[in-house]
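Category: protein sequence paired with discrete backbone structure
Discipline: computational structural biology
Format: plain text, a pair of labelled lines
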Amino acid sequence: MDLAGLPGSATTSASASSGGGSSSASSAGSGGAGGSSTGSAGSSSPSSSAESSSSTGSSSSTGTSSSAGSSSGTGGAGPTTVVAGELLVNLDVNDATAGTASWTNKGTLGGAFAKQGNPTKGTTGGKDAIVFSGADDVYVGPKSTGTIEGKDDRTIELWVLKPTVDNNEQAMLSWSDRKNQTNGRMMSFNYCKGIASSAISHWGDPDDLDWGSPGAAPSQNQWHHLVYTFDGTKAAVFADGVKMNEKTVMIDTRGGFSINLAAAREGNGFNKYGTLSIAVARVHSKALTESEIKLNYDAEKTRFQ
């Protein structure tokens, strides 16, 4: 996939693990976080790009991450993917509830994402997706948990297509609240160009991230695997397995607010609506490493080619 204006090249070396030691990874199964897993740690399957490990559907803190085995079920991550800590949010357009009034979250937070406006299930770039018009369309999910608030580690992982990319800040996935904010208290994963927060708004230029340079952004009208990580010290953004930007940030994300698709909360309403299509959305409670992000991209890229 083309990355318009983006510097850098893919790397398979792992980035620094999360501040408290990353958790043992489990499979983001197609039936959700509890999808079945096969194999043993360190072994590889000839049909999978990731290593396998036995999983019980829960995570335990071991100080290292390992790849997970293949999963079965419907409406989730599909091929073998790596989970960092807990898979709190696990949404896939292939789930029967996608596009309905209540899109079931197969992640450990449970609950569902409620439709506001008119996001619709359709075909974009030849692939099934939830299409957001940018005009009051949003899916509003359960409230964030303490494991992804404050200064805690986290990962946001998405498969997204944006038909046009401009200088208007548009959210892909967010939590916290834009109203009465102070520096470092927001969490919004964005898709635009030309501004300091074109990739991440933590609120305040010192802690925001662009896609590597002011004019850069993942290319428009193509499917991309976009990932944000925070490991307790550094925030980073990736496009199609390639690290595009990274810097040390001082964040303290406000909690008690909903997790949202294609918009950012502002008081009792929403703002920064995204004109884009989303097929997969995952939120992890720890930071995926650079090599694990590449594994996940490789595991799912054929679905979006």
User: Anything to note?
Assistant: The first strand starts at residue 43 and ends at 44. The chain has one helix and 19 strands. Residues 290-300 form the longest helix (11 residues).
